[in-house]
Amino acid sequence: MRCLIVDDSPRFLQAVRGLLEREGVVVVGVASNIGESVRQAGRLRPDVTLVDVDLGGESGFEAARRLHAAAGPGPAPVILISTHAEEDYADLIAASPAVGFLPKTTLSGDAIRELLGSR
Amino acid sequence: MVVASGLLVLLVGAAFTVLLVAIADLRAAEQHAQQSEEVLVVANRLERFVVDAEAGLRGYAVTADDSYLDLWRTAQSAVPQQSAVLAGLAADNPGQLARAQRIAQAAKSYLVDYSAPAIAAARKDPAAVAWVPVTAEGKQRVDALRAEFDAFVTTEQGLEAGQQSHSDVTARRAILAAVLGSAGSVVLVALFGGYLSRAIVRPVRRAAVMAGRLADGDLGARLAEGGAGEVGLLERSFNSMAGSLQDSRADLAASRARLVTAADQARRRIERDLHDGVQQRLVSLVLELRAAESADQADIGARIAEVADGLRDATDELRELSRGIHPSILSEGGLRPALRALARRSAVPVEFGADVADRLPDQVEVAAYYVVSEALANTAKHAEATIVHVDVRLADGLLGLSVRDDGIGGATPSRGSGLIGLTDRVQALGGTISITSPRGEGTTVEVTLPVREG
User: pTM above 0.80?
Assistant: First the structure.
């Protein structure tokens, strides 16, 4: 599985990359803002994109919409990730084109696969 | 005021009355003087006719020339006529009338009873003419007439002089009345001015000075009350205005102090939560990791998994803390999803209704969020409710919030510091808050917040 990760924290990007690679997920690229993520997604064509809800000054929900709109037919699924609780964002997650939400503390290859497989 | 006006009117009226009476008197006196003058003229003319007649008669006696009798003949026709005029003019004074009648009688008698027979006799006997005019009788008659005339004229002049002095008295009285009237008016107008100045101008000036002090921020400034009528009303209104300004400034200062205190307390609480909670937990995890370094190879995986669980709990705790500082969902999604998230976490089931625009000004969203959050927390803590209705509506530039539970009621707004904090927050935005909580009938918190876009 080829994965693009969008987050504004380099430390988190480094940690999650190491974890996922060990669990058999290929991290093809990372981005720290919406513009960069859209460019990377167009170029790399990942199987899944993980997007942090809070991208510093930008919104992860906005990133999800832009990625979805830019990808054309059959876009790569987006999974929103955050340290915030899922129940806080339930309405916004439901309204977004993202396929689901994973808390950062429980993020793993299996969790991603499970989420993608369940839909 | 009314008394002064009345006095002024009375004084001016009295002065005018005296003046009018005096003017009428003077006009009557003038008429009287004119009549007196005419009487004197007519009396003189009558006397002259008689004297002329006598002179003519004497001329005839000396010369026997008939032309001397022309004067006599003129007198013959003029005397009765002038006598009648004199009697007419003297009619209003009985004494003078009697004199005028005596003069007329004597003149007529002289002309008819004495001179006419003498002339007739002389014509018959011209030689006798010479003695005719110088008879003692003729002289006596003319002297008597003259004396009568003198008495008449003297009396008439006396009457006129009397009239004149009466007119003088009247004129002096009129002048006195005019002077007194003007002086009185001046005094009253001055008193009036003094009263106006004391009762109106000075209080108004004091009010202006006080308004200036208020404008400069001295809200303790007050006017001495006790003015009459509208001025007193003005003084009382000014004082109550200053009073309410002072009260509201005091309220404002108190609420500002509470807001500062609340912010300080919140920071202290966050510091304690960070120190006593997350930091202690992390410290203990560091110690566990250090211990794992020297643990058996077989044991190490399980110990690391334990530390990872501990770290996840620590991040959960941090998440709760950061949500308490500011709910990120509010800035991310706006009021409606933030309130829904509150409703989902509420210990008491929430029925939620919202009719609001996607986004509202930040401070309004934050205030509305904390109103609902605090109300739900209070309901969970005190109300023993089975359901809470949360309703949010935006209409006519006002955001209306209502949180209503079916609990035990009896909440007192002054007791909970949370509610006071909410009141301050709502009032800082120019909104209103009301809490109704009859015992046994649940609690309703209603808040309105003005929404100014931009």
Answer: no
Of A54, A90, A105, the CB nearest to B315: A105
Using a CB-CB cut-off of 8 Å, the residues of chain B touching A88 are: 323, 327-329, 341
Q: How far is CA B200 from the centre of its chain?
A: 9
Q: How far is CA B100 from the centre of its chain?
A: 72
Type of residue numbered B57: L
Can you read off the two tokens belonging to residue A40?
Answer: 């990377």
Distance of alpha carbon B139 from alpha carbon B142, whole angstroms = 5
**Given B315, B327, B337, which is nearest A91 (Cβ)?**
B337
Minimum Cα–Cα distance from A57: chain B residue: B332
Least confident of B40-49, B122-131, B405-414, B415-424: B122-131
- Do A34 and A66 touch, CB atoms closer than 8 A? yes
Task: Give the three-class secondary structure for B352.
Answer: strand
Angle at B182 between CA B177 and CA B188, to 5 degrees: 120
What is the CA B135 to chain-centroid distance, rounded?
96
Structure tokens at B194: 């003094």
Q: What's the complex ipTM? A: 0.81
Measured CA to CA, the distance from residue B210 to residue B249 in angstroms comes to 17
